[in-house]
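C-alpha cells please, single chain.
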Amino acid sequence: MKILVINAGSSSLKYQLFNMDNGDVLAKGLCERIGMDGAVTHKRPGKPDYKADVELKDHDDALKIVIDLLVGAETGVVKSIDEIDAVGHRFAHGGNLKGSQIITESVLKYLESIVPINPLHGPPAIAGYKACARLMDGKPQVGVFDTSFYTQIEDFRYIYAIPYEFYEKDNIRRYGFHGTSHRYVSAKAAELLGKPVDQVKVITCHLGNGSSITAVKNGVAIDTTMGFTPQEGVPMGTRSGSIDPTVVTYLMKTKGYSPEEMETILNKKSGFQGIFGNSDCRNVGDAAKAGDPKAILAQKMLGNAVKRYIGSFTAELNGVDAVVFTGGIGEHDSTIRGMALSELENFGIKLDAARNSEVNGTGMISTDDSPIQVWVIPTDEEYMIALDTQKLA
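Here you go.
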C-alpha cells in the first residue's frame, strides 16, 4: 500500500510518499512560496535532488507539480497516480474531533467551522485537502489532527478559570498541539523501555521553533503545555509562551497597541527573537558560546521552563518511567537539554553529561543507574500520519 502524506501551510506544501509494505519513503519534497515566486524540491533515496523554480498560484498548482514529479519519467517513483492508495493530511487543529478520521463532508464542514479559532493553520490545511480531493478524485482522504491526542484530558485540566460561558459558547479551552509527534515518541519510548505503551508513564518534550511538553500515562495524554493556541507554555523561537495576561492589557492601554499588534508581538517578536534578536536556536547557541549575555539568558529561560514542567508533570503522573526529548532543539541542543535536566537527582533523573553531548539520533542520555531514563528520540510525524491513514483507508 502506498500512502501520500500532505502537510499544507499557508505558502508551502510538504509531502512524502510511503510504501507501507516496508515503511520506506519513496519520495519527499517541498513546494514553497505558493502564491509568490514558487519553488519545488523533490528528493528520492539514492538519487540526485530535483530543484526548480515554478509558478505556484495556489495549492492546486503545488499538488499538480507533486503528482507530475511522482509519476514523471525522470523524477518518478510510481508509474501512475493509480498506485497511490490514499492520502493522509496533517491538521494542526481538529477542535474536538477524537482520533484520525476519513474526511467526509460533515468532517470538512466542522473543520471549516473552527477556522475562527485556528486562522493560521486551518485554511491552508483545508486548501491542501480540497486540492487532493479535486486532483485525486476517489482516493480516500484521511485527516490526522494534532489536537486529537488531547481529547481524553480531563476537564479540570483543559478548562480555563474564566467565566464558564466562554467554554460553553465560544469553545475556549486548552486544546494542545504537536500531538502526532508526542504520540509517536511516547510509543517509541515504551519500545525502548521494553514495556507495552499502556504500562508506561512518559514526559515528552517537543522542542523546536515551536515547543510543547506533554504528560503521557499509559499511551494517553493527561496534560500538556500548549493551550487554546500554540502560544501557551514555554518560550519558543518567536512566541512568548505563558505570561501574565495583564501584561497584554497593560501594554494595550499604555502603548496603544491594537489586538492585531499584540498578536504580532507575542507570536512573532517574542521568545528567542524578543530576548536575543534572532529566533534560530543555532544562532543563539553560537552567541552563547561566545559569551553573549542575552543569548545565555534566552537559553536559561527555555531550559528552566522545561525543567518546571518536567517537575510539575512528574507530580501529576505520580512518577514517570522516562523523559523524552525530540524536535529540532530537543534532538540537537545538548546545552538546553542539560539546563532542563540539571539538579533533578531528587526527582530520579541522573544526566550523563558525556552521553548528552555525544548523542546522535536515538540514544539514552541518562546514567545507567538513573531511576528515570532520559532519551533523545527523533520524531516522525509523517510516518505516524501514514500509519493512521493505512488503518482507515
